[in-house]
Design goal:
7-stranded parallel β-sheet, 10 helices
């Protein structure tokens, strides 16, 4: 395998952003290591010509094993990791069980963290690298009925900001992607999580849940296709000076600006309209 282009490990490649980014970078000649948590998805990726591996971010042993397999291929080097794996658990705070909140954090925060700390050791040893964490516009502002997901993305922001400071004396770049609405299976999976973990029938937010689940995703303003995220990842791979964060979609720019200039009460008024 040619290593003339950078090597990149991507988590959560079964669909959506991870899937499109893996395919896009592969066609551009990068050495892509696409991972998924289900064997059938690993096989699907492999059949598309990708180097694919089983990696469930909630299972430490699969992270360690996959990294060992990748390093055996690359002669011990890994240029970039894109921590993309994650999902959204909808629900009002009062309807959200502690177990559902823990499940949200197991993947979005603790899983991302485990990949990160294992990769940092590799990058410190080789003396360089880039870590891309998939956050969200909901790591900047909060929306109602999304408390678990909001909290997980705020946690990513806090961990990432700290890691960036701690790696300042190294050649390891750390950045986050603050994506807004992007076409993927995220919404479909979130609806299923609502049905699995929220007692909709007995909730005072019953009507809101029903409305959200029946909404036409094509009407979401400022929605972008997943390939646009892939292009930003490529931009980071090509950059000589990686920025601390990259806003993706107009929604992120608008709400990010609003967070900076408005008071909390003013911002709350706007967010309650969304």
């Amino acid at each position: 395998m040619s290593l003339s282009k950078k090597t990149i490990l991507i988590t959560g490649c079964s669909s959506g952003i991870g899937y499109q980014t893996a395919l896009y970078l592969h066609t551009k000649g990068y050495s892509v290591f696409a991972t998924a948590r289900k064997e059938e998805d690993v096989l699907k990726l492999s059949n598309l010509g990708l180097n694919s591996f089983l990696l469930d971010v909630t299972k430490k042993e699969t992270i360690t094993k996959t990294l060992q397999e990748i390093l055996a291929i690359t002669d011990g080097k890994l240029d970039v990791v894109f921590n993309n794996a994650g999902f959204g658990q909808p629900g009002a705070i009062e309807d959200l069980s502690t177990s559902a909140l823990k499940e949200q954090f197991e993947t979005n925060v603790f899983g991302m963290h485990e990949v990160t700390i294992q990769v940092v050791k590799i990058m410190n040893k080789q003396g360089y690298g880039t870590i891309i964490q998939h956050s969200s516009v909901l790591g900047i502002i909060s929306l109602k009925l999304r408390g678990a997901y909001n909290a997980s993305k705020y946690a990513i922001e806090g961990l990432n900001d700290t890691l960036r400071l701690e790696l300042k004396d190294t050649n390891i770049d750390v950045t986050v992607l603050n994506t807004g609405p992007v076409t993927s299976d995220f919404r479909k999976n979130a609806i299923q999580k609502t049905l699995d973990n929220i007692d909709i029938k007995n909730s005072r937010f019953k009507d809101a849940y029903t409305k959200n689940m029946s909404a036409n995703k094509s009407t979401v303003p400022f929605n972008l296709e997943a390939i646009e995220v892939a292009k930003v990842v490529e931009k980071i791979l090509q950059s000589k000076k990686v920025k601390p964060r990259y806003y993706i979609t107009k929604a992120t720019y608008i709400l990010g600006f609003a967070k900076r200039v408005l008071s909390s009460s003013q911002l709350d008024w706007i967010l309650n309209k969304l």
